[in-house]
Structure formats: C-alpha cells, structure tokens
Amino acid sequence: MKHTISVLVNNRPGVLARTAGLFSRRGFNIESLAVSATNDPDISRMTIVVDGQDQVLEQISKQLYKLMDVIKVLDHQDEPVVTRELALVKVRADANSRAEIMQTVSIFRANIVDISETTFTVEVTGGADKIDALIKLLSKHGIKEMMRTGRIVLSRGPRTA
User: Fold this and answer.
1) Hey, which end of the chain has fewer CB within 10 Å, N or C?
2) Over the stretch 127-147, which tens digit does the pLDDT of each residue have?
3) What is the pTM of this model?
4) 3-class secondary structure per residue, 103-143
5) Cβ atoms within 10 Å of 8's Cβ, excluding its own
6) pLDDT at position 104, please?
7) Where does CATH 3.30.70.260 sit in the chain?
C-alpha cells in the first residue's frame, strides 16, 4: 500500500540523508521525495512516498521521531489532502504535429514553456493521474526528456503541520 508521509525537520545539513537512510536501511524504496523550506525558514518539510505495509510504516514513523532534528511525522493515509506534482516534458514537435500537441497541452491546462525548431517543452501540474495521461498522449510524438518533481501534499482544512 502506498503511503505519503510528511516529515517536519529542522532545516540543517545532513537531515535529509539521515531521514532517507532510515527507509533504505529497512529495505524500502522511496518512490518520491520532495523537500522544501516551510513558511518558517528554520523548518523543512519532506514529503516521502513509499510502498509498504501499514504496520511496518507505523514502526518507521516511530523510529523517525528518534532522529535528531525530526519535529513531526504525519502519515496522510486516511485523511483528505491536496496533492500536486510538477512535470517538465520535452517532446518532439515537427511542423505536422505542433498544432495537435498545442491542443493536447491546452486541454490539460498545461503550458508550453520553451520552443525550439524541433521540440516543445511542456510544464504540467496536477495529480499523478493527470500527468500520466498527458505523458501517454505526448509519447506518440516522441518524448526526448522528462522530469517530475514527485508528490507534494498538504492536509485539507485547518491542520497546521
């Protein structure tokens, strides 16, 4: 089962490595990892997506609290959240395919952020399903390069952590 875990940590060197290391030592592959400072520049928020059993992830959450600099751990398994990803996709765009690509990008409310003689670079934000669907449609034109940020998440409503 996929878990999206937010870890609030002190914004210090080495914290990311120690936190990610805890997952790797337990044999978990981190599917997605996004880290950024919060509204407080002394605190960073890590959003970690990992696949695993509930009981094992609960144990890892408890062990995260033992790490120096960890402030709070939230498993967003059973709560309403707002989730987004960002992807940049460089796609082949010859004269015959440009109009179709532009129409597809428009339907997905994505943006073309760079144009060359032979490529478009498309920026898309949204849920993973939306990004996957756009990538599938663009792939028939030939994707030259692609980068995704990974999932970021905030709880819906008044939670402030």
Assistant:
1) N
2) 999 999 999 999 999 999 999
3) 0.81
4) HHHHHCCCEEEEECCCEEEEEEEECHHHHHHHHHHHHCCCE
5) 18
6) 98
7) 2-75
Q: What share of the chain is helix, strand, coil (3-state, %, to 5)?
A: 30, 40, 30
Judged by DSSP in three states, 76 sits in coil
For 46-74, write each residue's pLDDT tens digit: 999 988 787 878 888 888 998 889 999 99
CA 78 to chain CA centroid, nearest Å = 19
**Contact 89/148 with Cβ under 8 angstroms?**
no
Could you report how far apart the first and last alpha carbons of the chain are, in Å?
Answer: 23
Q: Does domain 2-75 have CATH number 3.50.50.60?
A: no
- For helices 128-139 and 98-107, what crossing angle results, to 10°? 170
The SS3 call for residue 23 is helix
Hunting for tokens 């995260």 — which residue is that? 64
**141: Cβ contacts below 8 Å, ≥ 6 apart:** 91, 92, 93, 97, 100, 101
Please, what CATH class does the domain formed by 82-153 belong to? alpha beta
